[in-house]
Specification:
The complex is a heterodimer of chains A (293) and B (189). Chain A is built from 12 helices and 4 strands. With 293 residues, chain A is mainly alpha-helical. In chain A, helix 7 packs antiparallel against helix 8 and helix 9 packs antiparallel against helix 12. In chain B, the strands form 2 sheets. In chain B, strands 1, 2, 3, 4, 5, 6 and 7 form a 7-stranded antiparallel sheet that branches. In chain B, helix 3 runs antiparallel to helix 4. Classes of the chains: A mainly alpha (293), B alpha+beta (189). At the A-B interface, helix 4, helix 6, helix 8, helix 9 and helix 12 of A face helix 1, helix 3, helix 4 and strand 5 of B.
């Protein structure tokens, strides 16, 4: 999963580098990259819904899901997002959309089949917290800054190194040097990109914990969210891997990631904190609520 | 600082607005004179029960308060199918009923559980047809909306609009129609 997103990002970088190599101005390149990310952000709801095969459902089609969302938005006093259902047997939910006013929350049919009403509500409270925290916007900006860092390094190194060696053009030896320099530049910008990628991941995990916390406070029952989390994670681990692979590209928007990563390197690049970390936070909240005021 | 809250992924729980509740007794007169709608003498307070002892304490504290106001027995409560708790308050005098509702809401609010409050519901009966019109008070927005259910999971939007027009000037009506959510099977005992 981490690899997927990393490769998608790398693709962006390679594409942009190609544009630079072809001779397009660096400023134009940055504008093109920005435009690409902006459209990804602006159409985030449509892209996510389309790729998950989800569709917006009316109140008549799914009165229960609407009723749950209605009550949550009334308690949180936020605009009601659109409600969608994805016909997938993996129990999960995601929220997307550029702003709280243009948001969509989506539950999978697997989630609605396996969890009871209150647990579904807990999961949706977590998703609505993502909407309230404007997580799609924040994560898009964060990943854009990461990529920008990669490009800028590249541009800076290009101009710096070639300005120094500009007078010895035509020489065989310096052609060789130029190739070496180019490899170095590619390596350095890849490293910069990798570092910013890890930072973006850390940010994503932090925001998952924030959404857990706000969601638990919204429903007033941290343990309920914890039990939904355990149930969803347990069910996910039990389902055959083929389905999981097909869904793993969308982990960033999910309630629980489809693949469980136990090793420490996995934790470093994972979009979600470990289950233990999330449960620990929720049990601390529960304990605070039980403390007599 | 809103921008920092966005960056850090923090949101504050929304405060409840209880004061607009008191505009209802005045509107009740208009409702009975020009709309033939009278209170059934009941009100329902709906909230999401929080876990923990301090929430339980807030509710039982309220039950002692309600007894000092003059009710002989504790107010009955019921859970609906979405896991929300409804406490039914009864009083023949509408003004006292609204006051009792306010007492219950503020005791939950003062105990620090204001974010758990969903709504309060006041059923009114049309004296000739027997039709029930619910007035739903949204705590977070401090506004009302009418809700007229008919049969199984259908609502009479036309009637709701007509009732809204009737008392638009006297009570704050929720302007955003997407917040007029239906409440099926309200468990008022």
């Amino acid at each position: 999963m981490g690899l997927t997103i990393f490769l998608i990002g790398l693709l962006y970088v390679v594409f942009i580098s190609l544009l630079i190599a072809v001779g397009v101005q660096s400023i134009a390149v940055i504008i093109i990259a920005g435009a690409l990310l902006f459209s990804q952000y602006y159409f985030s709801d449509k892209i996510a819904l389309y790729s998950m095969g989800a569709r917006i459902v009316s109140r008549d089609e799914s009165p229960d899901l609407h009723a749950i969302v209605d009550r949550l938005v009334a308690m949180a006093d936020m605009p009601k997002p659109q409600v969608a259902i994805a016909n997938i047997d993996i129990p999960n939910a995601f929220a997307t959309g550029r702003s709280p006013k243009a948001a969509v929350v989506c539950a999978t049919t697997g989630l609605m089949r396996r969890l009871n009403t209150e647990e579904i509500e807990a999961v949706l409270a977590h998703e609505l917290s993502h909407v309230a925290h404007k997580d799609v916007a924040v994560m898009t900006i964060a990943s854009f800054i990461g990529m920008l860092a990669g490009f800028l390094t590249r541009i800076a190194l290009w101009s710096g190194m070639f300005m120094g060696g500009g007078d010895s053009r035509g020489n065989n030896n310096s052609n060789n040097n130029a190739a070496m320099i180019e490899i170095a530049i590619v390596l350095i910008s890849a490293i910069i990109y990798a570092i910013s990628f890890l930072l973006t991941r850390a940010l994503s995990r932090y925001r998952e914990l924030s959404a857990d916390r706000s969601g638990a406070i919204l429903i007033g029952r941290p343990s309920l969210l914890a039990s939904a989390l355990v149930k969803v994670s347990g069910e996910i681990a039990r389902i055959p891997t083929r389905d999981l692979r097909s869904a793993s590209a969308f982990n960033a928007f999910y309630f629980a990631p489809a693949l469980t990563q136990g090793v420490s390197l996995g934790n470093l690049v994972s979009t979600h904190p470990t289950l233990e970390r999330r449960l620990e936070q929720l049990s601390r909240l529960e304990e605070q609520m039980n403390r007599p005021s | 600082m809103k921008i920092f809250d966005t960056i850090l992924g923090r949101t504050q729980p929304v405060k409840s607005n209880l004061d607009n509740l008191f505009s209802l007794p005045g509107a009740a007169i208009t409702l009975s004179v020009s709309g033939n709608l009278v209170s059934t003498g009941k009100a329902g307070v709906c909230f999401k029960p929080a876990s923990g002892a301090s929430f339980e304490n807030a509710i039982s504290e309220f039950q002692t308060v309600i007894e000092t106001i003059g009710s002989s027995e504790p107010a009955p409560s019921a859970l609906d199918s979405y896991g929300y708790e409804w406490i039914t308050l009864v009083d023949p005098d509408f003004g006292t009923l609204v006051t009792k509702t306010h007492v219950l809401n503020s005791s939950i609010n003062d105990a620090g559980f204001g974010s758990q409050l969903l709504c309060s519901v006041f059923p009114f009966k049309e004296t000739e047809t027997g039709e029930i019109v619910y007035f739903v008070y949204l705590f977070k927005r401090g506004s009302f909306y009418p809700f007229v259910p008919i049969g199984s999971e259908k609502r009479n939007s036309e009637r709701e609009m007509a009732v809204k027009a009737l008392i638009d000037k006297e009570i704050p009506i929720e302007p955003d129609l997407s917040h007029w959510f239906p409440l099926w099977e309200i468990p008022l005992s």
